[in-house]
Design goal:
This protein has 221 residues and is mostly helical. The chain has one domain: Methane Monooxygenase Hydroxylase, Chain G, domain 1 (Up-down Bundle), CATH 1.20.58. It contains 7 helices and no strands. The radius of gyration is 19 Å and the shape is elongated.
Length: 221
């Protein structure tokens, strides 16, 4: 494969990652909308559609491994392919969390939601925003933007801690709400993990551009 063909393959790989990221973001939106609106049909579709995300991840892995095996890339090219493999896994796991929210919605069934759905919605919005910005940082090779995503994970962690405290307090006051509150704790956990995965993508971008980790940047300040 000549260099021009290899470059086109790298561009296509990045486009495929962005396409996978778009699928994942849509799954997050749909899972939260279905949960809030008690739309069990949509929740079931989120669970079923996770297979599409898995398949796209596996195709990305196959393409990346094929390029590594046939082109034996070095330096930045090798990092690009390794990072593509890692990001594909992170995106697939975010899709799994969206699927998890769909499953929780199906478990809840027709029961009304406990309160705190607004806080969960805020967590979802922040996680999706971090996902979008981490992928844009990948396209732009923007270390500062990637670092900002990494820093912004604290905001989601604070929301998660707040939701957990309030749900646990509610369970103590009203033991009859324990089951419903536990379901929302699962949702909060899935959303918090989504933000962690977006942070991981940002870390991969930093590694791609610099060859170092976030801690290395901290030590150099």
């Amino acid at each position: 494969m000549v260099r021009a063909d290899f470059n086109r393959s790298l561009i296509q790989l990045q486009d495929d990652l962005l396409s996978l990221g778009d699928l994942v973001e849509k799954a997050i939106i749909k899972s939260m909308d279905a949960l809030e609106q008690r739309d069990l049909k949509a929740s079931f579709e989120v669970v079923q559609d996770d297979d599409l995300i898995d398949e796209k991840r596996f195709r990305l892995e196959e393409d990346s491994i094929d390029l590594i095996a046939t082109q034996q890339p070095l330096a930045t090219d090798l990092r690009t392919l390794i990072v593509a493999l890692q990001i594909a896994v992170e995106l697939e796991r975010m899709g799994d969390y969206a699927e998890g929210i769909g499953k929780v919605s199906l478990i809840i069934g027709d029961e009304p939601l406990f309160k705190h759905i607004e806080e969960l919605r805020h967590m979802s919005v922040h996680a999706r925003d971090m996902l979008r910005r981490s992928l844009k940082a990948l396209v732009d090779r923007d270390i500062a933007a990637a670092r900002q995503v990494w820093d912004d994970d604290d905001r989601v962690d604070r929301l998660y801690d707040e939701v957990c405290r309030e749900l646990f307090a509610g369970m103590a006051r009203e033991p009859q709400t324990i089951e419903r509150a536990t379901h929302l704790l699962w949702v909060a956990h899935d959303l918090e993990r989504m933000a962690d995965r977006a942070t991981n993508i940002a870390e991969r971008v930093i590694f791609l551009v610099t060859g170092g980790q976030v801690d290395d940047m901290d030590q150099s300040r």
